[in-house]
Design a protein that fits this description.
Blueprint lengths: L25 H4 L12 H23 L6 H8 L13 H9 L1
């Protein structure tokens, strides 16, 4: 006995069309995350956490390798240079030669 197919009762007739949502664009058409559903402090806290983490990743190895200068040597670039020493006083023999001329 021939068994009839439940999805295709008539031979040669197309199966009824089913609506299938594409998985690729499902999140765009129906987003599961809504804008404004988070607390106000989520973004600033996230930025702060990222800055601390990136800073630790960059600064800790530099401090471990002694690549960062010590604060005392850094002050040489920040502080004003000392004034130049005064010129030496004229010698007495040079002054006598100046007066004779």
């Amino acid at each position: 006995m021939a068994e009839k197919s439940k999805s295709n009762p008539a031979k040669g007739a197309p199966a009824p069309a089913r609506k299938v949502e594409p998985a690729m664009f499902g999140e765009i058409a129906n987003p599961s995350i809504m804008v404004g559903a988070r607390k106000w402090y989520t973004l600033p806290l996230s930025v702060l956490a990222h800055v601390v983490a990136i800073g630790a990743i960059v600064i800790v190895p530099l401090m471990a390798m002694d690549a960062l200068p010590t604060p005392a040597s850094m002050m040489a670039f920040v502080a004003a240079p000392p004034p130049p020493p005064p010129p030496p006083p004229p010698t007495s023999t040079a002054c006598k030669a100046c007066r004779a001329a």
